[in-house]
Amino acid sequence: MNMFRNNFLSYNDPSSLILNVVENHERVFYSFSGDSVNGTVLCLFIAGNCNIVLWNPATNAIKYLPPSEVGLVKLSMPDEAENYVEFNADYYVHGFGYDYVINDYKVIRYVDVSVDSSSEYSEDWLEDLECDSFWEIYILRSNSWRKLHIDMPYSLQCNDGTQVYMDGVCHWLCEEDKPCLVSFYLSNEEFFVTPTPSDVDDCFDVKALWINLAVLNGFIALISYYKETTTFHISILGEIGTKESWTKLIIAGPLSCVERPIGVGMKGQIVFRRKDEELVWLDLRTQMIAELG
């Protein structure tokens, strides 16, 4: 434990990076890839259900991602079916990051598809219509989506902070049979599932107000906040796919003045938003909170 605490040193200097949270209930994924594409940093924004935007903060250039091929399914329906058949597709972005093998950015998302028809409408083509939910992946260079033939755990509760990217791997929290962490490798498009141990499982319980994933000093970290005790529980994952490698790093608190984390600095400090909307950072070594000037 001392090894981890000594390595998670906090610095309040210009090399730390803090981004503002997007307003209007837009969800945002951050990917910091300073050593790729000649140092280019791209951010991904999600507006509404399916609109995805890539933003380069250095040039302020933006790029809207094209629609999914799932729209072709709807276009294949005959005109007379419009009043009797309801086609729905909900999109859940699970990750955004950089593939170091092909030197390109990728986005992975789950498409939840459903087709409902009234009892008075029945046609043979409707029975043959392929409307199963599926995974798809976007590649920036080709500017196109590709369907993934993979049976992978997904989450329909893609809340802010429950996904994170590190070193070519997208991670997200998922509750299937039991709480777990799913890790998807962008290069070979394979995934691993890491169960959460009993002392981390309770972060999915109603006792925890919220949970966050973060990258701390090269480790995947799980941060949960408990409203009753106003404490933060921080655990880190030592090895993907190994349940026993979860380590409880620290229990910080009580910290009643802190609302929730909004990011992690490049030197390992955790940045929180206080209840009065001011920003503070937590030094894991001393468990002291300092204001950001």
TrEMBL record:
<feature type="domain" description="F-box associated beta-propeller type 1">
    <location>
        <begin position="38"/>
        <end position="251"/>
    </location>
</feature>
<dbReference type="Pfam" id="PF07734">
    <property type="entry name" value="FBA_1"/>
</dbReference>
<dbReference type="InterPro" id="IPR017451">
    <property type="entry name" value="F-box-assoc_interact_dom"/>
</dbReference>
<dbReference type="InterPro" id="IPR006527">
    <property type="entry name" value="F-box-assoc_dom_typ1"/>
</dbReference>
<dbReference type="InterPro" id="IPR050796">
    <property type="entry name" value="SCF_F-box_component"/>
</dbReference>
<protein>
    <submittedName>
        <fullName>F-box protein</fullName>
    </submittedName>
</protein>
